[in-house]
Design brief:
There is one protein chain. By secondary structure, the protein is of the alpha+beta class. It contains 8 helices and 11 strands. The strands form 4 sheets. It has a 4-stranded mixed sheet. Strands 1-9-4 form a 3-stranded antiparallel sheet. The protein has a two-stranded antiparallel ribbon with strand order 2-8. Helix 4 links the parallel strand 5 and strand 6. The longest helix has 17 residues. It is globular. The chain starts with a strand and ends in a 5-residue tail after the last strand.
Length: 249
């Protein structure tokens, strides 16, 4: 490392969430969704996608966010269990899905696709830019979508609302029971009640495997030692409190 640089690592509210077609096709089955989660090797995903700079997560929420349920543990990597669940769901030989991938999630998508292929689930990847993402998403031809997602609100509600709420442009059909739960939590005026409901929502997302759960990204920042800078936990660039000290001769 250069002696004039400082390297800082800090966990962030940034993950790679999957949006799944919960209303029709193979992914409408809870056993199938659980199988997908058991098929993903999160440690390898973190190693090859983030060069080790991440932590596995159990749901779409992350430690430190309001509404994160710390009692939940990530689905274990167990391909044999995943195959068994697929067979029980009526897919002993697997199935094929069209997979919409935002360009900034290409590497993540390919690593997960390789894991799922091992249990007989084949994904046809279609890369898409930000400009074309919504149009392709609305085409109705895909069963799965992935794109990076920081959480600027520091609340589990944000990513859940984008990926799972049925009225979101990034959700297929959704789950109306969860819609009601999320709406009730957001409308709760009492902070204690709101957080209690948010923890219940997080468990519901986990129990119903409403997404493929991946990792919490650890931000790695490198900057000149004369700069005083603390990376913002949401993962968004935030430089208002950054400042340079005067160099001494």
């Amino acid at each position: 490392l250069r002696p004039d640089l400082t390297v800082v690592k800090k966990a962030s509210f940034y993950t790679m969430p999957f949006s799944l077609n919960l209303s029709s096709g193979p992914l409408s089955s809870l056993k199938v969704r659980k199988a997908l989660n058991h098929a993903v090797n999160k440690q390898n995903l973190i190693r090859y996608d983030l060069l080790g700079n991440g932590n596995p997560i159990a749901t779409l929420s992350m430690p430190g966010e309001t509404g994160h349920n710390p009692s939940l543990k990530p689905y274990e990597y167990n391909p044999a269990k995943a195959r068994k669940l697929l067979a029980e769901a009526g897919y002993p030989h697997g199935f094929t899905l069209d997979f919409l991938v935002k360009k900034n999630a290409e590497r993540t998508a390919k690593i997960v696709a390789a894991d799922l292929k091992e249990i007989g689930v084949n994904l046809n990847l279609s890369l898409v830019s930000d400009a074309d993402m919504i149009k392709e998403f609305r085409s109705g031809k895909y069963g799965m979508f992935i794109g990076s997602c920081p959480d600027p609100l520091a609340h589990s509600y944000f990513i859940q609302g984008i990926v799972l709420f049925s009225k979101s442009p990034y959700a297929w059909g959704g789950n109306h029971e969860f819609d009601d739960m999320l709406t009730k939590m957001a409308a709760a005026a009492n902070p204690t009640e709101s957080e209690k409901l948010a923890l219940e929502n997080d468990k519901y997302v986990y129990d119903n495997a409403m997404s493929i759960f991946t990792y919490q990204k650890i931000l790695v920042s490198s900057f000149n030692k004369t700069l005083s800078f603390e990376p913002y936990i949401t993962g968004a660039p935030y430089f208002f409190r950054a400042k340079f000290s005067e160099k001494k001769d």
